[in-house]
Amino acid sequence: MKAFFSSKSLENQIDQFLDAVSQGLIVFVSGVKSYFEEDKSDFEHYLKEISKLEAEADKLRREIENDLYTYSLIPENRGDVLALLEHLDNVIDSSKETLHQFDVEIPDIPLEFADRYIKLAEISCQAGEEVVLASRAFFKDIKRVKDHVHKVYFFEKETDRLGDQLKKDIFRSNMKLSRKIHLRYFATHVEVISDDAEDVADRLSIYTIKRMI
Predict the structure, then answer these.
(1) pTM value?
(2) Which domains, from first to last, does the chain contain?
(3) Strand, helix or coil at 76?
(4) What are the helix (H) ranges across 71-144?
(5) pLDDT tens digits for 5-47?
(6) C-alpha angle 95/98/102, rounded to 5°?
(7) Measured CA distances, 147 to 14, 23, 97, 142, 202 (Å)
């Protein structure tokens, strides 16, 4: 198969973009853990870090887009690459926005649910991590895309399962309805990361078929 990259600089930019998305997911989980540990210093550190990574990802995406058009790089795959990067950007955007909402709204989550929120965050972000690996494979070893895409779907379904059970238990508790709704809102926010990853996986599956033809 024809080599994907026509520029070493473009290859490096895409690698850096994928690194930023991956690191953002790691920072998100660490931030959620620090929130439940009531470690304000660490939480603020992770909040700043994920904001920096999200801004870096945005900057790199724009630079890649500019270079693709300015230097007419990979014209036959340009549209797919731009769409892929845009939807990957949604993954880190959702991570940053969710952690930011923890800071803004300060949800009062009972200790009995804390570990389950952390688990939900970990599994949701595993879907994100696998879609980053699938994207790397798309650019460098396309035959391995499927190895990671099916894991994205697994972790997305697992996130839905864990999220649904968590929300059921919240609404069957003795808390006030307003508090239940608030906690449901945050569970749903965490799940969005895996939903965004699934969207990227769907696109990758199509783009991979197109490249293999």
Answers:
(1) 0.94
(2) 8-212 (1.20.58.220)
(3) coil
(4) 78-105, 111-140
(5) 667 888 899 999 999 999 999 999 999 999 999 999 999 999 9
(6) 135
(7) 20, 21, 29, 10, 14
